Structure formats: C-alpha cells, structure tokens
Amino acid sequence: MAKFIEVSGRNIDDAKKNALTELNLPAERVVFEVLEEPSKGFFGLIGNKVAKIRATVRELSPEEKADNFLTGIFTAMNMHVDKVQRETDIGTLFELSGENMGIMIGKHGQTLDALQYLTNLAANKDSAEDRKHIVLDVENYRERREDTLKHLAERIADKVRTNKRKVILEPMNRHERKVIHIALQDETDIVTYSDGEEPYRKIVVDIKNKK
Questions:
Q1: How confident is the model at residue 207 (pLDDT cuts 50, 70, 90)?
Q2: Which UniProt keywords apply (predicted)?
Q3: Which of 63, 84, 92, 115 is the most exposed place for a label (fewest CB within 10 A)?
C-alpha cells in the first residue's frame, strides 16, 4: 500500500512544500491531491481556512530502482560512470561507460554478471507483478565476448573433429553456454551439452553418434 500523509499550509504551494519536507523526497516522487482549498473568512479575519492536501509517495519502477542502485554502488566506489538506458528484446539494458571500467567486468565478465544479478534483486524488490529483467553492459563488452565465444566454439569443434575426443570447456554462465550451443547447433557431426552444477556448469563438445 502506498504511503501518504495529509498536510496543511497557507496555500496549496505552501502545503506541497511542507509535504516534501516531511517526506524528504523530490516532487517527482510524490502525487498531490487537494483536499481543501484555502479561503479567507469574514473580512479576512474570522474563519480563515488553510489549504489541505494529501501527498502520496509514488512507487519507483524497477528501472528507477536499478538506476538508483547502480548510482549508489558507483558513488561508494568513487567512480564516475555514465549510464544509457534503453529497452531491448530481453529487458532493460543499462550501457555503462567511464574510466577504468575493466574492474567492473572482471575475468570473463564475472564481476559484471554479479553486479547484474544484484541489480536485478534491487530492481524487483517488492515487485511481485511488475518485474523487469535488467541487463548490464560495459562499453559493448557482452557483444565482444559473444563474438569471442563463437570463434572459440568453431576452434573447439575443429579440435574435436581432428582428435576424435571430447573437449570440456571452463565453467560458464547460462547465457555464455547458450552462445556455444547455438554456434554449433547446425554442425551435423558435433554435439554439445552441459554438465555439472551451477556455478561450475560446463559445456562439453563431442563427436555426434560416436562409436
């Protein structure tokens, strides 16, 4: 249930200022409803009525929660990071850029994946219905990583064909494993499957119908 307060003031604007001060929120986070208009009494002296309003706190959208969470993280790390937000087929993408962004990526994107996981938790907290998938990318890292994985898949497939032996890749997250599977799904002599438990689940590349 949305939080609200009822506040009075000499006029409507004064009542709104009082409400924002009490809630300690910017105006864009609050919806105002006028309950009583101010009026002057008899000869402006007797029966004066002040303005009365109801101020209801507007709930943040998942995208706003994600943006606030990321801002807090980068502020705590003393990093200036530019964020560009746009909608994609898989969710809301935050493209991040700035200096020394390599530390936000980590080995094979592990730090970026961890930050994305935490951002999704923050974005969808208390959002049972209006849930949103948040995707984080740093200076086009994910596209570059995907290209690297596709080339890796081709090299591994050639190696398996040559040696007639399966190859087990290092642990990957679900998205990266999917890239490998898709890259090799049309190879008639190669089969791929995942093995192990998260977060150590690995891709296995092998000869199809091996005897």
A1: very high
A2: Cell shape, Cell wall biogenesis/degradation, Chaperone, Cytoplasm, RNA-binding
A3: 84
